[in-house]
Each structure stands twice: as C-alpha cells, then as structure tokens.
C-alpha cells in the first residue's frame, strides 16, 4: 500500500492505495466522483478520459500511484462554481449531442483541451479528434454539431472580452 | 478487469532500474507510458510479480540533434514528438507517422521507447526505424550497446533487449536534402491499428534522377519489413509511375501477412502494394518541390 496525494478539481485528496488500483477506480471508488465512466477498461472506448496536468488521458490505463502529486480534472470540474455549464457542455445539451449520456464525460474531457488548441476546427478535424471516443447512441452527427457550436460560442465570448 | 497484484517500484535513475532488473530479471516488467502494458495487465494476459515504473526516472525524455542524428529519449511521449519543431523540420517523416499513432489520449501518455520495445507487428514506429536505418541504445550492467534497427526486431512482440537491459534512446538520421517522404496506413477508424502501413523516403539527385529510396512496412509480417528488392529496383530507374507500380509488385511479393477478423492476408498484401505506390508518389511530389526550390535558390544566387 502507498500513500498518495492527488489534486482533483482543485482539491487535494490523500489516500492509501494498492499500486494496482487504476486511476479510474481511484476517482470513482476512493473519491466518490462517479462522473468519470468506466467502459471497456482497455483503452478503446474513451469513456474514462480525464485531464492529468491539463492533458487528456485514459484513466483506465494509468495507475493511481503514478498520479501522486499530479493535478486531475474530471467532468465534475468543468462547470463554473455557480453551476454554469462549460460552453462545451452547454453546446452538447443545445445540439442534442448525447442520448444515454454514458460516453459524454469522456467526450467532454477529450475535447476541452483540444478546442483550446483548435479554436476553429473543420468537420474532418473534429471527427479525427473524437475518433478515440465511442458513442453507441448518437451516430456522432450531433456531437460534431455540438463541437462546432461550442467553438463558435467560445470565439464569441473571446471576441466579447476583447471589446 | 483489474491487474493482478504486483510489487511496485518507481525508481528515479537508470542505475536504480538496472539494479532492480538485476534483482528480479524475468519476473519484472518495465512500465513506460502504459498504453499497451496496462491493457495487458487489466485483462490479466500478463501477471508480472514486479512492475518497475520508469515515469519518475530523470533524463529519459528529450529530443535533440547531434551530428545529423536526432536523439530521442525513450520516455519521450508521442505527443512531444508530434509537437516538436525540431522533428517537424529535420525529420518530418517521423512527425507524419506519430500523428497516426492511436488517439490524442494515447499519444499524451504513450512513449517512443515503450512502443518500440513492445514491438507490436502493426505498430507504426518500427516501420520508420527500419526504413531510416535508425539505432537503438540499450543500457545494461556492462554499459551501452547500440543496435541497428534491422537487428532489433526478432518476432511478434519480441526484440533483442536482454532481461537486464533497458532501452534508453533511439536515433534517426535527419532527412537529407531533396528528400520527400510519406507515411501511409489504412485502418478502419483513425487511430486503430493499421491493416497495413508504409514508411517511405525518396531522395532526388541534383539532376532529378533517383538518388535513394527507402521503404519500411508494418502490419504485413511478424516484424517490420524493409522492402529491399523494391528499393533496389527503384534505384535503377527513373522516378515515375511505371517504376512505382513495379516496386509495388515487388513489395506484394515480399510480404507475408496473416488473415484476421479485420482483413484477409490477400487483402493486406494488395493493400501493401497500393499504399507503396501512393507513398512513392507523395514522396516524389514532395522531393520535387524541394528540388525546384533548390534550383530557384541556386539561380537566384547566380543572378544576385
């Protein structure tokens, strides 16, 4: 067993864990943050994607002990403190980019850092960016729409700030 | 699906890693980015007694140039190679290849050394290493051993790394002048393992004839394939579509793919030829642009 301290969504958690505990199970079972979903557990479906020091990673392919000292962001950390949704979350709701919602946290955590690097993505770029996340309900059409909507909304917001 | 129990070590130096390998030998597995090893652990296809995590080892992640060779630390993440200005300008074949490895989440964590040491027969990087005559630097108890790419891959998932050694660095030459390149693969979805893939460089002489051409293939054999017969034929002729079709035929004859649920052996063999032709055409086009630029600059220099 090892004692680790991980900052998750701005809060430091110290826990004693087995080295074989996956980051995904640490987040869900040790911290009770069940927004991170576990699908395939071998790195194919993308449902468990979280940010580790700002980079999207698959939490089922990372051991919790490896994240000692790291900063993690999960889907629970996306909305503003008052509950206002992140523009990408709002766009997913607006464009009906989800049905059952199981895959949604993984899509959001993959796309939030990606949109920061690709503020004006084309359809083809969006499809490539979300190729590591599986959705069994939507057929992806509305997810692509949601990403474009979010990109526009974030560009408007940026423009507004500048003016 | 959870990994079986293991003893976990996270050393901070290569010397410590070597000491642990001395102590545990075959019982130990090295953990780099974990994007291949952790799925195997999760499914309990492997149950190593000891896991040696390399992620806290200092000085294994870097990209630098020395004497026209790019040196890449084994723990360098794919995403770091993808974003490296040095790789983009000096070895763009590698940049083009790395973008096709897995998905962004995989590339943020997966490492160059881990992928190469894993030696998946459908992985992208091994094809590039054999095409470029890259070098593998292995550190063991008696020092560093440098292994040429052609001798590194032995079998499916098997390399010449000994149980008491660790891969610390890979080296690839920078692309020579007037050299075009291409990495092409076909997979069902972007980021999936390739059904077949080809790494190609094509160097034109100053007069526009063929100076050098290299072809490395993945997904079509138990190890990456250097298409030597096709390369020899390409060396003899003029760089044009007819010659490329001939080379593709030689590639089809040289590979020995297997059938699986994703595609039959015949389909993969066909694909290896198609991708070779396309890669050669792209590489020629890129080399021609460089040649024209060079000629314009020479003329400009003369006029100036």
Structure description:
Chain A has 163 residues and is of the alpha+beta class. In chain A, 36% of the residues lie in helices and 15% in strands. Chain A is built from 5 helices and 5 strands. A 5-stranded mixed β-sheet of chain A has the order 2-1-5-3-4, sandwiched between helices. The longest helix of chain A is centred in the C-terminal third of the chain and has 22 residues, at 141-162. Chain A is globular and about 45 Å long. Chain B is an alpha+beta fold and 304 residues long. Chain B contains 12 helices and 14 strands. Chain B has helices spanning 14-24, 37-42, 78-83, 85-90, 92-98, 104-109, 112-118, 125-131, 149-152, 228-236, 241-254, 265-303; strands spanning 7-9, 28-31, 50-53, 63-66, 69-73, 135-140, 143-148, 153-155, 158-159, 166-173, 179-186, 196-204, 210-218, 225-226. In chain B, the strands form 4 sheets. Chain B has a 5-stranded antiparallel β-sheet. Chain B has a 4-stranded antiparallel β-sheet with strand order 11-12-13-14, sandwiched between helices. In chain B, a hairpin with a 2-residue loop joins strand 6 (135-140) and strand 7. In chain B, helix 10 (228-236) packs antiparallel against helix 11 (241-254) and helix 11 packs antiparallel against helix 12 (265-303). The mean pLDDT of chain B is 96. The A-B interface holds A 2, 18-20, 22, 25, 41-43, 46, 49, 55-58, 60-63, 65-66, 110, 114, 127-129, 131-133 and B 1-8, 10, 34-35, 38-39, 41-43, 51, 53, 55, 79, 102-106, 108-109, 189-191.
Quick gist of this model?
The complex is a heterodimer of chains A (163) and B (304). Chain A has 163 residues and is α+β, with helices and mostly antiparallel strands.
């Amino acid at each position: 067993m090892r004692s680790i301290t991980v900052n998750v969504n701005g809060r430091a958690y110290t826990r004693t864990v087995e080295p074989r505990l996956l980051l995904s199970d640490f987040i869900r079972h040790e911290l009770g943050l069940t927004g991170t979903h576990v699908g395939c557990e071998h790195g194919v479906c993308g449902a468990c994607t979280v940010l580790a020091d700002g980079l999207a990673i698959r939490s089922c392919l990372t051991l919790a002990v490896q994240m000692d000292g790291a900063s993690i962001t999960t889907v629970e950390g996306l909305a503003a403190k008052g509950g206002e949704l992140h523009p990408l979350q709002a766009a997913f709701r607006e464009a009906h980019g989800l049905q059952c919602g199981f895959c949604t946290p993984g899509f959001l955590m993959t796309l939030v850092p990606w949109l920061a690097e690709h503020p004006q993505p084309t359809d083809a770029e969006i499809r490539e960016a979300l190729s590591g996340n599986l959705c069994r309900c939507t057929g992806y059409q509305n997810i692509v729409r949601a990403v474009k909507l979010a990109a526009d909304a974030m560009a408007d917001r940026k423009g507004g700030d500048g003016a | 699906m959870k990994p079986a129990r293991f003893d976990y070590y996270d050393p901070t130096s290569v010397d410590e890693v070597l000491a642990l390998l001395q102590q545990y030998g075959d019982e130990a597995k090295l953990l780099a980015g974990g994007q291949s090893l952790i799925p195997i652990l999760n499914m309990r296809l492997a149950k190593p007694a000891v896991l040696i995590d390399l992620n806290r080892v200092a000085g294994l992640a870097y990209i630098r140039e020395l004497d026209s060779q790019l040196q890449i630390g084994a723990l360098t993440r794919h995403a770091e190679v993808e974003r490296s200005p040095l790789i983009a300008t000096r070895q763009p074949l590698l940049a083009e290849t790395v973008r096709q490895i897995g998905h962004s989440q995989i590339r943020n964590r997966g490492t160059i050394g881990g992928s190469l040491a894993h030696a998946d027969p459908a992985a992208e990087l091994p094809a590039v290493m054999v095409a470029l005559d890259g070098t593998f630097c292995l550190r063991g108890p008696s020092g560093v051993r440098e292994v040429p790419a052609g001798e590194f891959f032995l079998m499916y998932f098997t390399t010449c790394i000994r149980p008491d050694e660790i891969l610390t660095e890979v080296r690839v030459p920078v692309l020579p002048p007037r050299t075009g390149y291409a990495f092409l693969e076909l997979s069902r979805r972007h980021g999936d393992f390739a059904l077949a893939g080809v790494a190609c460089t094509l160097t034109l002489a100053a007069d526009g004839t063929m100076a050098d051409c290299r072809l490395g293939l993945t997904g079509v054999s138990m190890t990456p394939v250097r298409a030597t017969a096709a390369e020899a034929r390409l060396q003899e002729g003029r760089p044009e579509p007819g010659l490329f079709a001939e080379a593709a035929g030689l590639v089809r004859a040289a590979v020995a793919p297997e059938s699986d649920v994703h595609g039959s052996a015949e389909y993969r063999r066909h694909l290896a030829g198609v991708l070779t032709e396309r890669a050669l055409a792209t590489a020629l086009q890129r080399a021609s642009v460089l040649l024209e630029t060079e000629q314009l600059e020479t003329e400009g220099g003369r006029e100036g």
